[in-house]
Design goal:
Two copies of one chain form a homodimer.
Chain A (H helix, E strand, L loop, with lengths): L7 H5 L3 E13 L2 E8 H7 L10 E2 L2 E3 L8 H12 L6 E8 L14 E10 L4 H9 L4 E5 L15 H16 L4 H14 L12 H10 L4 H6 L18 H15 L16 H12 L5 H10 L3 E9 L7 E6 L3 H4 L12
Parallel strand pairs in A: 1-6
Antiparallel strand pairs in A: 1-2, 1-4, 2-3, 2-7, 5-6, 8-9
Helix pairs in contact in A: 5-6, 7-9
Chain A binds a DNA duplex (30 and 30 nucleotides) through helix 11.
Chain lengths: ~350, ~350
DNA sequence: TTGATTTATACTCATTACGAGCATATTATT
DNA sequence: AATAATATGCTCGTAATGAGTATAAATCAA
């Protein structure tokens, strides 16, 4: 690209600030977790000295091009620096740069571009111990706290009928023209599985965007400085556009699960098939058919049994222990875990 | 993110320049095309006044945060400005920022971060006419000119056995340890389908990266300033890391084809099923089974027949004309085109 | 005009993948 | 010894997939 210092290319980009945000995910005892930072702590991590907002945020930091050869290595470096975690799997998600999505942004002329990353990790006991020291300024939160409508493990969440459907109905009715109304209805139906199509667990971002646009989330009210008289959709909000980045991560991970062996990045070295299943269910957000899950995983060559060892953690018959066969990656186009729903 | 003008976050990022690169794809009479700019023309488009390299490049330009609310709108704006094209479908690919990958980069302290986009378009006659005016400084190139090993439509490309296998063999032999050698061999086998697994048409980027690392491409020799005595893998090279970006785009598009109705973005309003099939084959890089392709497309509800019209363009029996049913997007989780290989 | 050639379209068949459920095994608990 | 809980093995119907055969409708060469 060879821009000289004087070229308009670099001039027009001088106002851009590049940051990195990380969605660090792990599954703990069947609950999906995101690593969250709050208030003073997150400001420190990002070296921000100006007044800051209070609330939940993803860990984020600057990208220093002098120090790091690739964006990913920059990300890994500050994750290692700012958290006690060592994620194995790291994947770039998306580069976010929408104006007006940053409530905390003072200088309107300056634009924050943030590159979002998804990182997967398994919490070993050591990490868990160190975690407690950082106390409540940085912690693991259940990701369904931010997206209660995405958790179908106990069946269809009640708040869909009780709050979301009504809210979307209002939004549909507000459409200017007949066409616009029909279009909004179709979009709402498709996103939330209100038509025959059913629920698509991968559409996390689409649903978030829809709720945002329908002004049903705290973030929409905040960014557009609205006063509203209707009830918002329950769920914790986040600073800046971090809930949107989290939605992107969830959708991506749910998709990836099906065609790449990424679950194992969140598993201990040895595990039972039920443990694996619960982990997949935590991410996918719905229950799976146990026997078929077993058939699939065993048949895929992704795991091998640890001979002679049994787990008797649960109540009933002891389960065989398995470990991930890292070789699959070298043998075949490494498959994922199909998501046959439970009956 | 709320950085103040004085925060270290913005200081450490001051050296970053953000650019946009576009992989603009269309399929013309069964041949997959990328939009390419060359030499003086591309320097002009990017407003670069410093001395520049000569060679093929993707169209790219600056991102002006003042003028555009989103990165995507910035991209659309300069594509409209610099080319006669109006892509309908635009998708963010990846954000590239590797040091040392930019041979044209003079100022080592300044880092170019480029956000790659994939754009799909259909060449109508008007565009085709306007295209001719821009002459040879900007043109449509067959994307297999850059990736001859990716075109399996006429069977396995000969250069795989004649050049690539030998080259990779040398690279494997150069491995330091026994383990390293085994690892390299496994990776080469998997990438190029030399084991039972077979060829995975989506691994375009993996294959490019492997060849780059094995110093079998012009780009590796260029970036590392090597002198080599073995024969490089044939195929046109590109400036900077543009061939890598193109590889990313090809892999992504080949994947997307299977689960989203993106082919239609490259089709005229009305088309025959064979035309559609040839377009899919052009992108996927291998032939498809005609009868099954037909069954699948007709059964998916993605197309509707244009009653009363037939195409007699080809030699034999006239074919029915179809058009894309845009409604599928609103009806169901819009499907793609499965890639049942031909016998 | 006829027969060869080319392309389009309809239909069949075997195999596999998938969703659902039943049955049995092995442990702890009461 | 009965009961509850979990693990594991197996069957079955349906749908999707890969491959091939058969027929229809046009052009072209003689």
């Amino acid at each position: 690209m060879a821009p000289s210092a004087k070229s308009p290319l670099s001039n027009s980009s001088a106002q851009i600030v590049l940051g990195l945000s990380a969605v660090i995910v792990s599954v703990d005892h069947g609950d999906p977790k995101v690593f969250i930072v709050r208030g003073a702590e997150h400001a420190l991590a990002a070296n921000i000295t100006s007044p800051h907002e209070d609330g939940d945020a993803l860990p984020f930091g600057p990208f220093d091009p002098q120090q790091h050869a690739t964006i990913e290595s920059g990300l890994r470096a500050w994750v290692a620096e700012q958290t006690p975690l060592k994620p194995g799997y790291v994947e770039q998600l998306y580069t976010f740069g929408n104006r007006g999505r940053y409530a905390g942004q003072r200088d309107e002329a300056q634009r924050v571009i943030s590159v979002g990353y998804l990182a997967l990790t398994w919490q070993d006991d050591l990490e868990r111990a160190r975690m407690k020291q950082t106390a409540n300024s940085a912690f693991w939160a259940d990701w369904y706290d931010y997206f209660p409508w995405e958790d179908w493990r106990q069946g269809r969440p009640k708040l869909i009928s009780s709050v979301i459907e009504a809210g979307l109905k209002r939004w549909v009715a507000e459409g200017e023209s007949r066409d616009e109304k029909a279009h909004r209805r179709a979009r709402a139906d498709l996103c939330f599985g209100l038509n025959e199509a059913g629920w698509d667990e991968e559409k996390v971002l689409e649903r978030y965007e829809l709720l945002y646009e329908a002004r049903l989330l705290y973030e929409s009210v905040r960014d557009k400085k609205l006063k509203v008289d209707y009830v918002l959709v329950p769920g914790r909000s986040m600073l800046y556009d971090h809930r949107r980045i989290l939605a992107t991560a969830m959708g991506r991970l749910r998709g990836k699960l099906k065609y790449r062996p990424v679950v194992f990045e969140m598993m201990p070295p040895e595990f039972t098939l039920l443990h694996l299943q619960k982990t997949v269910e935590a991410v996918a957000g719905h229950p799976l058919h146990k026997q078929n899950f077993r058939r699939l995983v065993e048949g895929s060559g992704m795991v091998e049994e640890v001979t002679g060892k049994k787990s008797s953690a649960a109540g009933g018959r002891p389960a065989a222990l398995f470990r991930f066969r890292r070789d699959v990656i070298h043998e075949r186009p490494a498959p994922g875990v199909k998501l046959a729903p439970a009956g």
